[in-house]
Amino acid sequence: MPRIKAAICRAFGAPLSIEELDLRAPLAGEVEVTLEAVAICHSDISYAEGAWGGTLPAVYGHEAAGRISALGAGVTGFAVGDPVVVTLIRSCGTCPNCATGRPTICEDQTGPHGSALTAPDGTEVVQAMNCGAFAERVVIDTSQIAKLPEGMAMDAASLLSCGVITGVGAVVNAAGLRAGQDVVVIGAGGVGLNAIQGARIAGARRITAVDMTEEKLAIARDFGATDGLLATSDKPWKALRKATGRGADAVIVTVGAIPAYDSAPLYLAAGGRVVMVGMPPSGAQASYEPVVSAFMGQGMIGSKMGDVVISRDIPWMVDLYQQGRLKLDELISARWRLDQINEAIADTKSGGARRNVIMLTR
Ligand SMILES: [Zn+2]
Ligand SMILES: [Zn+2]
């Protein structure tokens, strides 16, 4: 079994430690990917701090890109050497949700094979979020990868696997936004900036960012917002209604804050939809007024990972990036080595919306 270097979590809240682990060969339906870049997502940090529970020891990391280095039995459509994006979206292909084109909410995401990682003392190590990508290599299910064109920069590609598809997909897939419609994006962070890009790509008329500081609103404008409202101002939805004359067709909530969820329906036009993306702590409750939703024909829907089908959606996003119509490089704040991962995590916690990327080929 090959030994790989990985950043492992042995206690919630403690720094990750760089250790050598054993990675078993890919089994039926799996591939081994030698990683070149992995971005740090806020979900990795929440897990490593113990916010959502889980078993330890574990390797986090789920926004990655690299090249296929081995194929398990029965894998078709991919070859050793192919550049790919690695995602956490594992799907069985046959459950009712997969069968209707919604693999992000597959009902059987565990798969048959279990973790591919063990410590040298024989202890099983959890591949968190089906990935375990804070590592030199991963063994994952083939449903989790999408092919990249040769020459695509791996740092930019790694961002496609989570924050970008979640934000862009919330607008183009979940909200089904059409050209000329009005959008509000609450939260101009990592996912929010990508929802704003999605709205621009979809041809939205007004794209209004709502956030806590003028600085965030200025960044939102760089990514395509046409308007900005401070969440701290008095009833900002009134300004939105005045500007649009009717309210928004879609309100994308990209932060896990209850005040954001409480205010979201107030921005809606008749017939509009709130798309729920940001994840508050378990048990937190938001409120809304059912009579308004009923009378105005409004709705609220949840969206996980942008409702994407990776083999359908990643290729067009790559094309738009290469044409200069989807910003990826601008989302990267810094590049780090694997042995600097704790510094990179600290920077992500203290910093703004942009991503820190670990480059594994350095
Ligand atoms: Zn993520
Ligand atoms: Zn399924």
Largest sheet: 7 strands, mixed
Structural class: alpha/beta
The topology string of helices and strands comes to EEEHEEEHEEEEHEHEHEHEHEHEHEHE
Helical residues, percent: 25-40%
Ligand types = zinc ion
CA-based shape:
globular
Mean pLDDT: 95
Beta strand count = 18
Estimated radius of gyration: 20 Å
Q: Report the uncertain regions.
A: none
Please indicate the percent range of residues in DSSP E strands (runs of 2 or more): 25-35%
Count of alpha and pi helical runs: 10
CA-CA gap between termini: 23 Å
What does this structure look like?
The chain is an alpha/beta fold and 362 residues long. Helix content is 27%, strand content 26%. Strands 3, 5, 6, 9, 10, 17 and 18 form a seven-stranded mixed β-sheet that branches. A six-stranded parallel β-sheet has the order 13-12-11-14-15-16, sandwiched between helices. Helix 3 packs across helix 4 and helix 3 crosses helix 9. The mean pLDDT is 95. Bound molecules: zinc ion (ZN) (2 copies). The site of one zinc ion has 5 residues, from loops.
Task: Looking at this protein, list some descriptive labels.
362 residues, alpha/beta, 7-stranded mixed beta sheet, 6-stranded parallel beta sheet, 18 strands, 27% helix, 26% strand, globular, binds zinc ion
